[in-house]
Amino acid sequence: MRFTVSSSTLSNNLMSLAKVINSKNSLAILECILFDIRNGQLTMTASDSENTMKTTIPLEESDGEAFVAISSRKLLDAVRELPEQPLTFEIDTTNYTVMVYYQNGQYNFIAENADTFPKDQPIGDESTLITIESSVLSDNITRSIFATMQDNLHPAMNGIYFDLTAEGLFIVATDGRKLVRNKVMKVKSETPSSFILPKKPATLLKNVLPKEGDVVIKFDNRSAIISYPDGTLTCRLIDGRYPNYNSVIPKNNPNQVMVDRKTILSALRRVLPFASESSQLIRFQIELGKLEISSEDLDYATSAKESIICDYNGQRMSIGFKGSSFVEALSNLESDEVIIELGDPSRAGVIRPATQPEDQEVLMLIMPMLLND
Predict the structure, then answer these.
(1) Rounded-to-integer distance, Cα 337 and Cα 352, Å
(2) Is the pLDDT of residue 125 over 80?
(3) Of the candidates 19, 66, 20, which has an alpha carbon nearest to the alpha carbon of residue 42?
(4) Cβ(97)–Cβ(109) under 8 Å?
(5) Is the pLDDT of residue 373 over 70?
(6) Residue 12: φ, ψ to 5°
(7) Which of helix, strand or coil describes residue 254?
(8) What is the β-pairing status of strands 349-353 and 66-71?
(9) How far is 297 from 278, CA to CA, in rounded Å?
């Protein structure tokens, strides 16, 4: 059979699918991308046995059906260097040969039998549906993923927690030292349900979700099917009990600092290189209208200090934080100004954007560090 497809469209979709495939696979077929041509459409599938991503492309021309697996690396290397032009594929499903014709040449591949490609696991009958705007989901994943843990001893904290409640959908990530809690008020349910999305499918989604359209998430206690305008992602969920994230958020931090986000972020990046590499401790000295940020490394006799203007009327306070965590938190916010809520030097600091996203509430928390006074 023969079909024609745009080279740039094929290359862009192949690059997204290739991120699913592991560098080392237990099954040789998992190094391939599944090509399913029927009804004038090309559906491509990539899998690592736990995550399966599919995308569908309308074809310019097609004269039949085919179902084969093609080496992802070889095909991607072949087409991504081509300028925009139509590519014509000729597939012999009897001998599993693939010919690709382009403007000035041709490629010849050996395909694999697609019947050995892993099949999707069905979602159970007791599943839950969540519909959320694609841009909202993408923003929340991007804002949260830096706070996930990488630790086999705490698998539940290695992913992003989706907690559907009557108040809204809470999207949470924490590693025990920092926490991100997003609340999407438009998405809610009287029947509570939750799941933990692993970091890999979360990263895949962040890279492929379009700016417009809705995403439908169907999940049970084992797996989820996430359908977005350009394709679907099926993934195995993390099994485990997520920590009670609300219990660690201070109910009342009376001392509030309002400061320009880019100003404090730039100051932190200038001061952080002078902190101890092991602790990355940054000291915040706060008083009326002024925030002083300082660091030092006694082993190498280095130090740095910078003062910035802020809106603050609380009590004079000195508190320590891990500088890199603060930089990550501020980098993943978009508001021009941020509000830093503090209680005392032993209580966690809470960061909120001064202007919240529409119909959302974003909160970040960073645990303090002991100052050597």
Answers:
(1) 9
(2) no
(3) 66
(4) yes
(5) no
(6) -60, -40
(7) coil
(8) unpaired
(9) 10
Beta bridge partners of 45: 34, 54
> Helices 199-208 and 7-18 meet at what angle, rounded to 10?
160
Residue 185: per-residue pLDDT: 96
Q: Which residue type, as a one-letter code, is found at position 367?
A: M
What does 304-361 look like in DSSP terms, one character per residue? Answer: EEEEEE-B--S--EEEEEEHHHHHHHHHT---SEEEEEE--TTS-EEEEESSPPTTEE
Burial of residue 85, with CB atoms counted within 10 A of its CB: 0-12 exposed, 13-18 middle, 19 or more buried = exposed
Sheet of 41-47, strands arranged across: 112-113, 66-71, 32-38, 41-47, 51-58, 231-236, 223-228, 214-219, 128-133
Q: How far apart are the first and last CA of the chain?
A: 76
Query: Which tokens hold the place of 121?
Result: 């696991």
The pTM of the full predicted model, rounded to 2 decimals, is 0.93
Q: Are strands 337-342 and 317-322 parallel, antiparallel or unpaired?
A: unpaired
DSSP 8-state class, residue 273 = G
What residue type is 102 in one-letter code?
A: Y
Asked if residue 117 lies in contact with residue 49, where contact means CB atoms within 8 angstroms, the answer is: no
Q: Which two tokens stand for residue 99?
A: 């010919």
Q: Which residues pair with 168 in a beta bridge?
A: none
